[in-house]
Design a protein that fits this description.
The complex is a heterodimer of chains A (about 110) and B (about 110). Chain A is mainly beta and about 110 residues long. Chain A is built from no helices and eleven strands. The chains are: A mainly beta (about 110), B mainly beta (about 110).
Chain lengths: ~110, ~110
C-alpha cells in the first residue's frame, strides 16, 4: 500500500523549545491526521485535516495539509515535559478509506 | 459514550495455542481496522472490515491470521498456532465512515511464551 515517510525518527529537545515534524507521501492523500501515543496506550487524535492548504491549531499544536496533498507537518510550540511520546502522522489515500501510518517521531523533552 | 473497547488488555499464550482478540467499536461505527505494533516500531495496517465484510486484508499474513466483524458482537482477530514473533500490541480502530471520527482502542498486548 501507499507509504508515508515521517521525519525525524526521534528528537531530543529542551523544555520550552519549538518542535517540527513532517510526513510525505508519493501519492495524493485525502486526509491527514496527527496522533500521539503514550506508553502502553493507543494513539490519540491530536489534529485532523481534510482540505489541501488547511492550517489547524489545537492549543500549542499546529498542523497543515500540504497544497500538493502529498505532505503535512506538525508543529509544537513551547514544549513541556508531558509532550513526551510518539507522534504519528496518518492519512487516507485518494482511492480508498484505509488509514496509513508513518513510522512515528519519538519526542523526548528535557526539563 | 464508551470509546473503542478492546479486550483483553494483556494476553499470554504458549506457542501453538490460539489467540482471540476482541474489539467493540464505538456506537454508530461500522468500520473497524486492526493494526499491529512491534516494540519501538510504528503501526502496521492488517485488515479493514465493515459489518460482515472484509474490505481490505492486504496487511494480514495469509496463514494463521483471520478477522471477522459479525452482524452482532465485536470484531475478532484470531491468530492460530501462535509463534514468538506474534508477540506485539494489536490495536483496533473504528470509524463511522472513512477517516472522520477515527478512534483507537487501548490495544491488546499479546505475549507468546
Amino acid at each position: 500500500g501507499q507509504q508515508l515517510n515521517q521525519s525525524p525518527q526521534s528528537m531530543f529537545i529542551q523544555e520550552g523549545e519549538d518542535v517540527s515534524m513532517n510526513c510525505t507521501s508519493s501519492s495524493i492523500f485525502n486526509t491527514w491526521l496527527w496522533y500521539k501515543q503514550d506508553p502502553g496506550e493507543g494513539p490519540v487524535l491530536l489534529i485532523a485535516l481534510y482540505k489541501a492548504g488547511e492550517l489547524t491549531s489545537n492549543g500549542r499544536l499546529t498542523a497543515q495539509f500540504g497544497i500538493t496533498r502529498k505532505d503535512s507537518f506538525l508543529n509544537i510550540s513551547a514544549s513541556i515535559p508531558s509532550d513526551v511520546g510518539i507522534y504519528f502522522c496518518a492519512g487516507t489515500p485518494y482511492n480508498n478509506n484505509d488509514m496509513r501510518f508513518g513510522a512515528g517521531t519519538r519526542l523526548t523533552v528535557k526539563p | 459514550n464508551a470509546g473503542v473497547m478492546q479486550n483483553p488488555r494483556h494476553l499470554v499464550r504458549r506457542r501453538g495455542q490460539e489467540a482471540r482478540l476482541r474489539c467493540s467499536p464505538m456506537k454508530g461505527h461500522s468500520h473497524v481496522y486492526w493494526y499491529r505494533q512491534l516494540p519501538e516500531e510504528g503501526l502496521k495496517f492488517m485488515v479493514y472490515l465493515q459489518k460482515e465484510n472484509i474490505i481490505d486484508e492486504s496487511g494480514m499474513p495469509k496463514e494463521r491470521f483471520s478477522a471477522e466483524f459479525p452482524k452482532e458482537g465485536p470484531s475478532i482477530l484470531r491468530i492460530q498456532q501462535v509463534v514468538r514473533g506474534d508477540s506485539a500490541a494489536y490495536f483496533c480502530a473504528s470509524s463511522p465512515s472513512g477517516a472522520r471520527g477515527y478512534t483507537f482502542g487501548s490495544g491488546t498486548r499479546l505475549t507468546v511464551v
